[in-house]
Amino acid sequence: MSEKSDMSFLDHLEELRWRLVKSIGAIVLGGILAYLFIDDIIAILIAPTEHISSPMILQVLTVQGMFMIKWGMSIVGGFILALPVITYQMAKFITPGLYKNEKKFMIPLVFFSYISFIIGVVFAYMIIIPFSLQFFSSLGMSDIQNNYSINYYFSFIIWLMLGSGIIFELPVMVFILSVIGILTPPFMRHYRKHALIVILLLSAFITPPDPVSLLFMSLPLVLLYELSIGVSWIVNKRNKEA
């Protein structure tokens, strides 16, 4: 165990406070950086509406609508940019409670955690969002225009992207639980059917209520679960050899 294991409760609270301060500072800096490019970011997020068969017209319905959108997107962008710092601060806080052979995984864990999240966000942007927009916009009628509030539009796509990013952290979570000895490949294989039910429920919760989006979210989740079994197998094998 680390020499910090004898820290008092107040010392732990003080360290936690500074970890939170640094994380919030990273979000603020990331938000400022995102705001400098906010028009480009908004243009990128609106782009999927330009490639569907039924045109979508986005409208600002309140006086302060665009102001709130830009600030909200800046905060979300700041959070995404700051994720490596946030993950690192969390890792540093719990590191004193880990064994030496577990600490060596922390830096790679921060890196792969962020990469997994970004892959999930990109997957939602490239696959789930276009198909969802196509599905919902196709339900319109010839005499009714597809006019949508830009606030609801951004809430819709940000929820999908963040949800997808979190779900793509599954291999990372399995890695952590395998390192500390909670998960093993036989356990995951035994409960595979139960996991598939949970996957369908998660997919239904994150995606819009249509079968296409549910399918496109469920398939990568199934693949991620199988990949996670391999991750758990590698970790447990290394633990036995250590």
Please describe the structure with a list of short key phrases separated by commas or semicolons.
two-stranded parallel ribbon; single chain; 2 domains; mainly alpha
Short description:
The chain has 242 residues and is mainly α. It is built from ten helices and two strands, in the order ααβαααβααααα.
Structure notes:
By secondary structure, this protein is an all-alpha fold. The protein has 2 domains: 1-155, no CATH class; 169-242, no CATH class. Helices cover 76% and strands 2% of the residues. It has helices spanning 9-36, 38-46, 65-94, 100-103, 106-137, 150-167, 170-179, 185-190, 192-206, 211-241; strands spanning 57-59, 147-149. The protein has a two-stranded parallel sheet with strand order 1-2. α5 (106-137) runs antiparallel to α10 (211-241), α7 runs parallel beside α10 (211-241) and α9 packs across α10.
Q: State the helical fraction.
A: over 70%
Percent of residues in beta strands? Answer: under 5%
Task: Count every beta strand, where a strand is a DSSP E run of 2 or more residues.
Answer: 2
Major sheet characteristics: 2 strands, parallel
Distance from N terminus to C terminus (CA atoms, Å) equals 16 Å
User: Number of domains in the coordinates?
Assistant: 2
Order of helices and strands: HHEHHHEHHHHH
**Radius of gyration based on Cα positions:** 21 Å
Largest sheet, spatial ordering of strands: 1-2
The average pLDDT is 80
Helix count from the secondary structure assignment:
10
Structural class based on helices, strands and sheet pairing: mainly alpha
**Morphology call:** flat
Uncertain spans, ≥5 residues at pLDDT below 50? none
